[in-house]
Amino acid sequence: MIDEIYENAKEHMEKAIEALKRDFGTLRTGKVTTNIVDHIKVDYYGTPTPLNQVGSVVVQDATTIAINPWEKSMLSVIERAIQEANIGVNPNNDGDFIKLFFPPMTVEQRQEIVKQAKAMAEKAKVAVRNIRKDANNKIKHLEHDKEISEDEMKRALDKIQKLTDEYVAKIDTSLKAKEADILKV
Q1: Measured between alpha carbons, how far is 32 from 15 in angstroms, rounded to an integer?
Q2: Contact of 66 with 80, CB cutoff 8 Å
Q3: What is the pTM of this model?
Q4: Is the pLDDT of residue 87 over 70?
Q5: Domains and CATH numbers, the chain
Q6: Residue 145 gets which letter from DSSP?
Q7: Which end of the chain has fewer CB atoms surrounding its CB within 10 Å, N or C?
Q8: Are strands 91-93 and 98-101 parallel, antiparallel or unpaired?
């Protein structure tokens, strides 16, 4: 029973790390990635559809993303969706492609993005701590119902705390790496 609670907590903490990495992927670093536009949804015949499902999204160089819609009639819809997403650039529509030209980031922009990364990391830490709290409550409930002894409960709570510390350290490591990536010129 305790092992099941531990494995469940570990699995959920791993998902929190994966979510953090996805969030980090949306942040801009020194060179652009297609992840910047991953969250943008386009109105495709009345259905909100991810941008990468209505055209090809490719990085042309360190500062340019090109979007080639599969249907030319989608150009204006894609352009409007990018403007509404407010990702810091205006789309350039040349009739065939939409290009996004990202200017080099200023020091202030980099610091602002680092703040966003720290907020994302803090959110992930809160998620991990909530998972710990849920696991601890389940373990205490088992002890209260006399399904496990007090010693077993203490050992299980220590094990959950060690797991929590491990995942918080992973979050800190990911944040440091992302911060270095953002601040690198």
Answers
A1: 26
A2: no
A3: 0.75
A4: yes
A5: 2-26+106-183 (1.10.132.20), 34-101 (3.30.1360.40)
A6: T
A7: C
A8: antiparallel
